[in-house]
Structure formats: C-alpha cells, structure tokens
Amino acid sequence: MRVINAVRLGLMVLAVCPLARAAEHVTLKNGFELDCVRREAVGDKIRLYFAGKNAETNYLEVSADSVVRVEEIADVPVETQKPVMTTKASRTTEPTKAEMREMLAHAGVEHNIDADLLASVVRAESGGQVRAVSRAGAQGLMQLMPGTASDLGVRDAFRPEQNIAGGTTYLDALLTRYHDNVALALAAYNAGPKAVDKYHGVPPYRETRAYVARVIREFNHRKQMALVARAQ
Known about the structure:
With 232 residues, the protein is an alpha+beta fold. The protein has two domains: 24-72; 79-231, Lysozyme, CATH 1.10.530. It is 47% helix and 16% strand. The chain is built from eight helices and eight strands. It has helices at residues 2-16, 97-111, 115-126, 146-151, 160-177, 182-191, 193-199, 206-231, and strands at 24-28, 33-36, 38-42, 45-49, 59-63, 67-72, 84-86, 132-134. The strands form three sheets. A three-stranded antiparallel beta sheet has the order 2-1-6. The chain has a three-stranded antiparallel beta sheet with strand order 3-4-5, with no helix packed on it. The longest helix has 26 residues, at 206-231. The model is unreliable at 3-22 and 75-91 (pLDDT under 50).
C-alpha cells in the first residue's frame, strides 16, 4: 500500500532533507514523533502547540512523563519556501473543511492514494487557498501549471474539484513512474521528473528537499494525530 510506503519513508527522508518551519521535534514514549511551535506545562500535563491559524487552540495535551526527547528544529530559510500569492478576482468560493475532505477522499479512492497525503500536498502547495498563484504561474490548490492542467483535462484550475482531480492524477502518474517511492514522486511534483531523473534521486535543490520533507512531515503528523485521537 502506498500509505505504508509513505510512513516508512517519512523518517528516512526527514533525516536527510532540510526541515520545515517548526520549533521543536518531540518524541513520545508510545513512538509518536510530533513537531510543535512551543510547549507549555499545565499541571502534570504538557501542551504541544502546533502551527496554524488558531494556534492557541491547536494543541495536543500529553502527560509530562510521556515525553522522551525534545530536539530543536532549524527553520527553513524563507527563500526556500514556495512563493505563493492570491489573485484579486474570485471565481470560486472556498470549500468548507468537510467539502475539502470529501473531495480529497474521493480523489484518493479513485487513484489509491491516501487522502492525508493529498491533503499534505495541498497544504504545502497552496496552504489550502483555492485561488493561489505562484510567481511561476502555477494555479490552485495543488498548484498546476497551465500546460500541465490542460494536459490533465483541467478546464479551470481554480475550481477545487477540478484542481484536486488533476493534481491527484499527476501525482498518481509520478508514483507509478517511481514505483511508489513517495520521496521521488514528491520531488518530481515540485521540481519536475527531468530533475529527478538527472540526479537519480531527490535533486540537491534546497526548495525541493525542504518541500519533500515538509509534505512527509505533515503526512506523518496527520497520521499521528489520528492515532492519538483514536487512543483517547
């Protein structure tokens, strides 16, 4: 299953790639590894706060003795992050979280790709902004270049369902091309297959390495949070 490959691959890729923006990497006794922007002691509990719009309410509370190790994480230089801006004209409405999950789940089923991996790509590519446009001209949630979108049958890259369908189809093709090697597929999604083939692996580009690490860290984080939620 591609999900298993992604989880196993995550720790390996994170060890060799530049890390996404975060403050601390926390290892728990149960084997979970989480990235948080800060910690706060609350009685015999520790709150691990995560990045996000609602930072003060976006946290996980664990017992103090469950924390095995805390490591500082260096920030990725701003210039290595994919620049994103939004267009002035709004042709679509932002989907709700439920609608986004439904679209990602549908695309994941269609292509046998875990919806959490797709959601991680969306977050890294556009931050969930439907009308996001990069300086290079990539558009929408999964940042499709106009030519690529056209080849994939996407008529309007700013339509969430079309963009997700096209981006997932492209990622599926890359996973097939690289025999379900998630790191290589993500690197090709970011830098193009030619760059991956040229270097016979993840290209030595800071942006691409940071991108691969960021997506896999987000994917692992989503899986870890889901496991924690089920255990409570």
